[in-house]
Write a structure and sequence with these properties.
flat, about 80% helix, mainly alpha
Length: about 60
């Protein structure tokens, strides 16, 4: 592997691991939920969408 290919694979590994972690968080939330499905708001909460959005907006100011 070249240096670029190795760096690219490392970045992809980090992205894949982050996606796996998020899926795990959703599965944990779904298994603990009383309702049949997670609401879109609950999904956003589990994935910390609002926190990420707030951090991005704060960084732009």
């Amino acid at each position: 592997m070249t240096a670029n290919a190795t760096a690219s694979a490392t970045v992809q590994d980090h992205v894949a691991l982050a996606e796996i972690e998020l899926c795990g968080e959703l599965m944990i939330a779904a298994s603990a939920a009383n309702e049949e499905r997670l609401s879109p708001d609950r999904i956003d909460e589990v994935l910390k969408v609002a926190a990420e959005r707030s951090a991005l907006l704060a960084a732009l100011e």
